[in-house]
Amino acid sequence: MPAEVKLECIGKMEFKERLSLRCTAKAERSLVDSQKIEFNKGRFWGNNRYLGLDLNNKYDVTKHLKDKTEALELMKYLKKVGVFKNLTISFGGPKCSLLAYQLRRSLHKVAQMRIDTNSKVGTTFQVSVSKNGSFAEFLEHFADRIVSKRDKRVRIRTNNPDRHILLERGLDNVVTTGYYIQFFRLIVISAKMKQSEYDGNFKEWLLKMDPDAYDKYFWENSFDNFDDFYDDDDEEFESWRHIWYDSDDAHEPHYY
Amino acid sequence: MAPKKNSAKRPQPSTPKPSAPARIVKVQSSDGHILQADVRALLLSSTLAATIKGYDDENKPLEKLEVNNVVGFTLKLVLEWCEKHKEDDPAIAQAEKDKKNIFIPSWDRHFLTKLPMGNLFDLITAAYHLDITGLINYGCKTVANSAKGKSTEEMRELFGIPEPWEQPSTSTATWDD
Predict the structure, then answer these.
(1) Do the chains contact at A8 and B159, CB–CB below 8 Å?
(2) Domain residue limits at A1
(3) Does residue A94 sit in the same domain as residue A5?
(4) pLDDT on residue A227
(5) Does A147 touch chain B (CB under 8 A)?
(6) Smallest Cβ distance to A1: which of B121, B136, B154?
């Protein structure tokens, strides 16, 4: 079967079958990798011990950091081909500090992609980061597009007069600015949407990103044990950084 | 009565148009087999449609079309599929072209799944050469369905991919590049 025809077949395959096929031969892998694949939902997460991903609530992989090759390989592949309607990236734990700078940048990079591709209303991106500055950087980057600005929300114009982008910061009485990890949600909304229609239930989406977000004990202990967790050898996270956020890489993750 | 499940996904056939008398032409395969087909069926192939249009524009009589890259056995299958779908709205196939999940109507499911995998691959390849979007869609989805749940080894078998040590080396790059 000629490669072009095989490519058409791959386009009709599900994710798992594509994975099986790409392991058969180098030529097949390159064919599979040349095809984008759409997902309604994707979640990539990491903490001090594990790396994992979950696609469409159907396919999930969790690997211990010591046995991370498979998860990393998948991440690498998905970075090339994944087109996500809703993507959540959640890296809890102080060991993820190397990711922080790139993750902060990812907020306005994703927003810019949403603008450039005229993404549909409802398209969502969620990310948790473990450093300050994301909100401020976003404001600076889109200073000339800001429609409204509050302590938890910034709304910006897109190039489409019917659509705006809303960046929300996951903050409430429990999860405050004093926390090491910050939660953000970026949604494409209708330009007609009123402020009174905003979803005020931060807790719900925040818990989806990190089920421990409201566990006070967890937070207190995360801080107390910060130095214990921190490892001088950050090679593992360096490799994550290269996979997902290397700014020199032409293959950015794709979003609607 | 409750609407049928999946009815939203099912391609709706176009309203039958008042049928003109069938215009039958001969079609010759690469191995010399001569078959007959209704021009309306052949118009599903963009490649053949262009050739037919060329004849019509020049008012030349179209007696025989030569299909040089498809053998008789496969061409017969192509023509059978086209005959069945000659009333279809081409917009449906176009809309399904880049979709991963498409519905295969029962006639097509039966027609395609009864074929041995080698013949199915030949049929899809012929559809690709002749640019028949609907047949490519259904054929490829049938292959994708056959691949469902298969391991790497089973995929190798399905697509006839040699083991790594049997594959000719085309570059100095390693597998891990």
Answers:
(1) no
(2) 1-35
(3) no
(4) 33
(5) no
(6) B121
CB B41 within 8 A of CB B82: yes
**Which of A23-32, A170-179, A224-233 has the lowest average pLDDT?**
A224-233
Same domain, A12 and A81: no
Closest partner CB to A8 (pick from B128, B159, B167): B128
Both A25 and A94 in one domain: the answer is no
**pLDDT tens profile B51-75:** 998 888 888 888 889 999 999 999 9
The answer to whether A12 contacts B164, with C-beta atoms less than 8 Å apart, is no
Q: Centre a 10 Å sphere on the Cβ of residue B149 and count the other Cβ atoms it contains.
A: 10
Q: B17 to chain A nearest CA, in Å?
A: 32
ipTM of the complex, rounded to two decimals:
0.80
Residues 6+ apart with CB under 8 A from A106: A89, A127, A245
A69 touches chain B (CB under 8 A): no
Q: What is the CATH number of domain B24-164?
A: 3.30.710.10
By C-alpha distance, the chain A residue nearest B152 is A20
The pLDDT assigned to A230 comes to 32
E runs forming strands in chain A: 37-46, 50-55, 59-64, 82-91, 124-129, 146-149, 153-157, 163-169, 182-190, 254-255
Measured at the CA of B82, the angle between CA B78 and CA B85, to 5 degrees, comes to: 145
Domain map (residue ranges) of chain B: 24-164
pLDDT per residue over A96-124, tens digit each?
A: 444 444 555 567 777 887 888 888 888 88
